[in-house]
């Protein structure tokens, strides 16, 4: 994993943006994210956003940001407790997931389950040894095969492949982004950007109106700001 920090300043990059925000942007409060840092990253670009778990506000949003940190088990339990499952699954406006938020877009995850634990509690959205996620992108989240590298995969790393997508406009192979994770989605037909840490994994996945970034755009300097801006300008 390359550890060099990108040379371009996020603040100088963001300061070139002119505020013309007319959108209704929502950050979903899953109870499992540093929401203030995500909101600040959006505001730095001249946009506004509301942090909420209110179903009606989420449904009416023009754009939905879905951040997350921690384990899939805990996050899905929170989402179920808040009654957000069906709302999130049925969104038709653009949705962007950050880190765990991306992983929760998958069909299932094993994150948060010990090797001896089998979950059958439907409240936690789990079958034996699998956490049932939102299922809006048909992929799985599995332990990252880091080979001889240390886990978690934490720090700056480069993209190894980038396909054409509006959210990735201006993003190229070898661009740096900031990662913190031990689980990942494998390469699939829904992969629109990849990264390598021991083995290749999906850095960005997309299907229909849902896009998920394994890295943290809000912590990824100028290029992370570019991805957020691309999304908010859809």
Topology diagram in text:
Elements: H1 10-14, E1 25-28, H2 35-44, E2 50-52, H3 55-60, E3 63-66, H4 72-81, H5 85-89, E4 95-98, H6 100-103, E5 108-109, E6 126-127, E7 130-132, E8 140-143, E9 153-162, E10 176-181, E11 183-184, E12 191-197, E13 199-207, E14 210-213, H7 221-232
Parallel strand pairs: 1-2, 1-3, 3-4, 4-14, 5-8
Antiparallel strand pairs: 5-7, 6-7, 8-11, 9-10, 9-12, 12-13, 13-14
Domain Glutamine amidotransferase: 42-232
Organism: Colwellia sp. C1
Protein name: Imidazole glycerol phosphate synthase subunit HisH
Note the main sheet. 9 strands, mixed
How many strand units?
Answer: 14
Mean pLDDT: 89
Global geometry: globular
- Helical/strand content category: alpha/beta
Beta-strand percent range:
25-35%
* CATH class label: Alpha Beta
Number of helical regions? 7
List segments where confidence is low: pLDDT < 50 over at least 5 consecutive residues: 7-20, 116-126
Strand order of the largest sheet: 2-1-3-4-14-13-12-9-10
What is the domain total for the residues? 1
Order of helices and strands: HEHEHEHHEHEEEEEEEEEEH
First-to-last CA distance: 32 Å
Walk me through this protein's architecture.
- The chain has 234 residues and is of the alpha/beta class.
- It contains seven helices and 14 strands.
- The protein has one domain: Class I glutamine amidotransferase (GATase) domain (Rossmann fold, 3-Layer(aba) Sandwich).
- The strands form two sheets. The protein has a nine-stranded mixed sheet.
- The relative contact order is 0.18.
């Amino acid at each position: 994993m390359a550890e060099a920090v990108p040379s371009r300043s996020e603040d100088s990059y963001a300061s070139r943006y002119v505020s013309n925000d007319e959108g209704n942007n929502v950050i979903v409060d899953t109870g499992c994210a540093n929401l203030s840092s995500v909101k600040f990253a959006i505001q730095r670009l001249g946009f506004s956003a509301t942090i909420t778990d209110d179903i009606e506000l989420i449904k009416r949003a023009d754009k939905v940001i879905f951040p997350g940190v921690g384990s899939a088990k805990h996050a899905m339990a929170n989402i179920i407790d808040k009654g957000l499952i069906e709302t999130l699954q049925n969104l038709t406006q653009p949705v962007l997931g950050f880190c765990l938020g991306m992983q929760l877009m998958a069909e299932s995850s094993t994150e948060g389950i010990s090797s001896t634990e089998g979950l059958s509690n439907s409240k936690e959205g789990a079958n034996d040894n699998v956490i049932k996620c939102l299922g809006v992108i048909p992929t799985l989240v599995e332990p990252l095969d880091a080979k001889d590298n240390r886990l978690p995969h934490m720090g700056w790393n480069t993209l190894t492949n980038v396909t054409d997508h509006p959210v990735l406009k201006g993003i190229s192979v070898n661009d740096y982004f900031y990662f913190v994770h031990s689980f990942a989605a494998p390469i699939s037909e829904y992969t629109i950007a990849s990264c390598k840490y021991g083995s290749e994994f999906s850095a960005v996945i997309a299907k229909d109106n849902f896009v998920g970034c394994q890295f943290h755009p809000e912590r990824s300097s100028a290029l992370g700001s570019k991805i957020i801006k691309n999304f908010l300008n859809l």
